[in-house]
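My hope is that you will study the protein record below before we discuss the fold together.
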Amino acid sequence: MTEEHELTITIDATRMRNLLEERDKISVVSMHITSRVDIISVLLSGDIIKAMERKRVVWEISTPNGNYSLPASEVGIDRIATQVGTELLKDIMVQVHI
């Protein structure tokens, strides 16, 4: 059996919030992963996803195996918050596996 190698990335909410606030016109947030891994896992807080959604930002991840795009609006963070019974989006962590 082959061992899978996983890379987990946690986005710094403060830095991302500052980036989104500093730039009036931002349509894409890109991450370039150069490591050859089997699984990439990215963690992002619900409040940052909501801020990205308000600006209509697309989250792009480029890897040696391909490129992936996820519009923040497709996450449905408000629906998730309702399902888990909270209004505090910062308390929700969304994990995307590639």
About this structure: The chain has a mean pLDDT of 89. Residues 18 and 25 are 13 Å apart (CA to CA). DSSP finds three helices and six strands in the chain. Strands lie at 6-10, 28-32, 39-45, 58-63, 66-71, 93-97.
